[in-house]
Amino acid sequence: MVLPDILALLYDHPAYRxxxxxxxxxxxxxxxxxxxxxxxARPALLAALHTHLNRPMLVVVARADAARILTQQIQLWSPxxxxxxxxxxxxxxxxxxxxxGRDTVCERIRVLAAVATWPVEADHRPPPLLVTSxxxxxxxxxxxxxxxxxxxxxxxxxxxxxxxLVTHWIQLGYQPVTVVEEPGSFxxxxxxxxxFSPYQPRPVRIELFGDEIESLRTFDxxxxxxxxHIQRFKVVPAHEALARYGPEAREALRKIDLSNCQxxxxxxxxxxxEHLERAERFQGIEFYLPFFYDTPAGPLDYLPPDGLxxxxxxxxxxxxxxxxxxxxxxLLQELVRHGELPSGLPRPYFTPQEVRNSVGARPxxxxxxxxWEMSTGALEDASATPALETLxxxxxxxxxxxxxxxxxxxxxxxxxxxxxxxxHQAARLGEMLADRQIAFHTGAPLPGPEELSxxxxxxxxxxxxxxxxxxxxLRAGITLIQGxxxxxxxxxxxxxxxxMGEHAASDRPxxxxxxxxxxxxxxxxxxxxxxxxxxxxxxxxxxxxxxxxPGDYVVHVEHGIGIxxxxxxxxxxxxxxxxxxxxYAANDRLYVPVYQADRLSRYVSVDDKPPVxxxxxxxxxxxxxxxxxxxxxxxxxxxxxLYAAREITPGFAFAPDTPWQQELEAAFPYxxxxxxxxxxxxxxRDMEKPKPMDRLIC
Length: 698
Prior knowledge:
Blueprint: H1 3-11, H2 14-23, H3 42-53, E1 57-61, H4 64-77, H5 102-116, E2 129-133, H6 134-138, H7 144-150, E3 152-155, H8 162-171, E4 175-176, E5 185-189, E6 192-196, E7 204-209, E8 212-219, E9 226-230, E10 232-235, H9 246-252, H10 263-277, E11 308-311, H11 314-337, H12 352-360, E12 364-366, E13 392-394, H13 402-414, E14 418-423, H14 426-435, E15 441-442, H15 449-455, E16 477-482, E17 489-491, E18 512-516, H16 517-520, E19 553-556, E20 560-572, E21 575-583, E22 589-593, E23 600-602, H17 620-647, H18 659-666, H19 674-687
């Protein structure tokens, strides 16, 4: 453990210690001006405050990608990375009527439940440090008191009423299924209950003896085999929108007008309203989440009164919130105009001004140099609290000049400074230092993205994680760590004899220098984007035919090839609607409603020869489709014969990776995505087999 040890060194600095002591008072004494912390040092500072204050924290970042990177960096610095969750953004934009992905639903309710239950059920867990973005901050969601009241703990030896328990699960949004495979589902087989709570990494099998819980075991959702015995577990709602409040959501939407909606959209809304009235969970229930509760909450409401609110960059946060608000209003107008949304729909999010008022109503820190206009009535006079603008300094950049780096490291080591190098080339740097007879220490390697994700996953309940009270001091000299950090920085030299706000002279060497690949080699290895479930965006109907021109050949999925003639209006039974006119042979015409435009596609041919057009209602198009299907089957048969021949043909088997190959890969200046890592592993596996490789990577 090296990075957490640096936090102890940070605590010895007078300026930082003064800040911690001011924040530890009741009420906390906060600076009236932004701290002006170097951006590269913000993850370390936040991890240090979380460790030394030992209280809940909420960190607000403007954009989702920045929140994700900041969370990962804080987790690397924190002694308790499992206590640093991130509240994901919803998959849909405001007013977009699409379902969230399963991973988003589960992660959001897991994080909210962990934060909401911490003051009541600490269970030796360290306080949470929650990171969120502007869009997640603006979304209206379940109030923390409502969420806490819905959580149930089950343990071995507990007596339960089976029917009441199952009814409660259904009210929490759990779906009864035959086999439990996904979070938010449960099954009942006599005296055995299976349930997959989003709060748990694995589903749990409950075995009853009468009305008493005899055993609890986790099991594999793929094989359904039991794995290990546990003593207790937590059941949280399956969704932020508690299905039992569906009738209240329907009542809140009673005044909306569906008359301007397209028939398909109107029918879909009416079907959703029926589910709400019956208090049922359904696909796309997230759209109605802001209307489930009389007083919806936001992430700010989950921060306890003694918690610390931190805004990374107030100016950027305000800008992004205004952009999201303008985008939402524009999208609403567009969807109402095209009949995809009804008129009179209530606003599903907090406005930027409402968010600013909520933030300004409670004491908070601003890490950037810029602030915003806010009332200072809630703040104590903290003029004596030092700012941290000069505490952290930018690290020197070497840009691959190894000789200058090594010479500088030798001089700093002789001066008694602590230098920490975090690099994917730690082994190579160690060889260079050893060749020049420069002593160095080796620290524990940092976890990679995948390993970090597993580490920060919810720990099995019953495992105690206590914040360490003993501080270890980082050893002077050079320390090499295998891994990746975003950027390095230098800690201002100071001694305990300095008065508050006074800093060391500028010509004095830094007390601590942290270098990463960004400074050593001149490149930054960014974190990869994690895969997110595909979600279909709400689009206007004409999106499917906007590139059609009158006279183009088009293909209808049921009626075949025709000629597109344009958009026409027809009055049927006193109702005027828009249709797409497609002409066929013998003056046959097909009028396709605009909301069914996705049934049409452009005709594509290998040559300029015009296609054959048939009449409507004949068998010619069906015959053409059968011929095409037969031709595809013939091609499939040829491919099967080809691949069978390849299987018995010997090839060349390459040797496994050497250390030189591993060093070459480590020098790649980017972090591979999950798909890239999977492709690399599969290609190497194929190349090491004595069979010809047959793989196409695009």
